[in-house]
Design goal:
The protein is of the alpha+beta class and about 725 residues long. About 55% of the residues lie in helices and about 10% in strands. It has 21 helices and 14 strands. The strands form five sheets. The protein has a four-stranded antiparallel β-sheet, with helices on both faces. The chain has a four-stranded mixed β-sheet with strand order 6-4-5-7. A two-stranded antiparallel ribbon has the order 2-3. Strand 2 and strand 3 form a beta hairpin. Helix 1 runs antiparallel to helix 2 and helix 11 runs parallel beside helix 15. The longest helix is centred in the first third of the chain and has 78 residues.
Amino acid sequence: MKSGRTRCFHEDDGGFSTVGMVLALLISLALIFTSAQVYRIQSYSADIQNVADASVLAAENQVASFYVVGQVCDAAVLTLSLTGVAVAGVGAVALCVPGGQAVGEKCLEAARKIMQARNRFSKKASEGLNKLQKLLPFIAAAESYGVAAANGEGHQYFALAVLLPTEGEQIQIEEVDGEGAVEDLQNKQDQIEEAARQAEDAAKRADEHKQRAYQADCGAAPGFCMEERAGSLAGMGGWENPHYATSDAWSFSVALQRAQTYYPRRLAQEAPANGSVGEQSNSALRKRMYAYAVEQVNKGYVHEDAEGFFEADFPLIPRNTAELRQTELYTQQVYPISQDEEGNLSMHAWSGCPGLQGKDYAGCGSIAQMESGGYIECDQCRFVASSLGSVAAASTSTSNGFEHYYRIVAEEAEEYEKARAEQRSAMEAVKNPISEALGEFLDIAKKAAQARIELSPPGRYGAIAIAVNTTALPVAEMFPNGFVRSSGSLGPRAALSAAMLGEDDPEETENVITSLFDGFLVDSQGIATQSLPLVLDLWSMLLTAHSRGVSALEEGVENALGGIPLVGHCGLGTWARGKLEDVVEQVGLEPADLTSYKPILANTYQVASQDGSIFSRALLGSKKVAAHIPASAVNPVGAAIDATASFAEERIDGIDDEMEIATIEILGEGGPSLPVKVPLPPAVKKETKSLVESAREQIASFAGVGGGEDVWK
């Protein structure tokens, strides 16, 4: 009888036999459990790479933190410099205004203290930052060790991180000498204040004279004034006879032009009111006076500019005989002379006088000749030496005459000119030293804007960490099963990792700077602001917005100036404010670079290739050799051990929970202060030098460094 199988372990119908099925299951289970064991072994082996990655990131994170500390110090140094300059500038502006001179004195003293504080802080900050960056390789190594130990989960992990380069460049913050410029201005303070007071007094007087002249010209309308009289007496209106609602828009030239229009109009319109000889005589004399007024007033002028220069000439019309004698009207030989039969001479007001009829014409004479004697009064025109003076007095000495108000304007213009001259002289005595001081402050601000902290710390290229697990792990504990041999153990493991700095959100750094100073500014309000609130307000503005550059400085200065009464009669405050704003604009302050950094994993070749140390060269050499590493090659692990062993003991011992970089004393000793402190990572605070050295020894032992056996290969 034929067998039912044609193949081993198979039935004729194509199915597995019982034995075949058992073998298939056993083989499958063996493969599954073997794969699982391999995966488990690989997972345990890969753990060390994760530890190395975490350790190197922790180490490089200390470098990122150092940059934040440096940026905080840079922000403090820069804003202290600019605050000192700005407060000094505000003080200079305040000195120009009598109402703000007390504030100006306080500002200058505060500015001097701020500039002292800036230089003290910059010196201490450079020392503190240099000390911190010398400790940075140890702090990074300790932190990498701490992270490795924390990730051990019962296993013995050791990690050693090396910052590349291992040393930073010396930090030196340049001093800015601003005290000298402030002290120079303080020495001139008394003379500036006195000159500013004189300028203000002169400006007040000038404004009062202008106001009275304005009232006489058109301010009193519709009451009696030049405008009203010109309209009523000469029929002037519209553009010929303008009205100004305030003296601010009005100028003396308005009154002069009004007079220069008025007198030709009156001369053309003059005519006797009736046919009497007396009225005809007076009309003739009025024409004589108007003609003289036209000639004289047209010689007048008003010169003024925006800088306060003023010069004017308002020719006066004589208001009586005494003044008449001082003019050419007194000596003009224009009055006809008659001689009667007896040889008596008479002088007449005009050629149409009836008293000339029937008498001999004897030429023309002057009022001066009449007063010298030898003339008898005409019984018709009654012309005497005082007749012309009486005509002038009629419109000048009474409040209903145009000349009355014109004379007021002319007299006020003369006094106004004197006051403006005094004002200009006093203002020059203020402007010269203030301009010189603001120029020096500009130079200081420009220098301060360039005197920034340049950071080149250890680890600026990156960090490389070596992590090892020296504990042997029995295979049986990984994945116990009957399909894979459980004897033996997984030996020590090692991994290499690298990290470098990548750019992060700048807002992070700005938030750190702002939060650091917020508490200080709040706590200090009750101390410093009692004497000078604008100092901390200005510094606060610069700190919280210094990333905006010159716009923050402009806003801070504008806010500070807002608390000082700059409005005055002489305009020195406005002038000084404009000069200070020009200084701020010319500083050319660029927005601060607040780029923050975070550690990111990188290829060890990428990090090591930027550094020329023995460790980096050894590591690069080993990575370039694919098959065989010569025995003469430098052991990169040994080089790393040597690099970290260079920590001086004095750099390690005595480390506290935090490290103080420097203290800001913005207004000097006794005033509000702010210590800039750096909290040290937990590993540095908890772990000791011996533990770091222990990690170094374990890694050295694992790599065969110093024992003569090149296990590392």
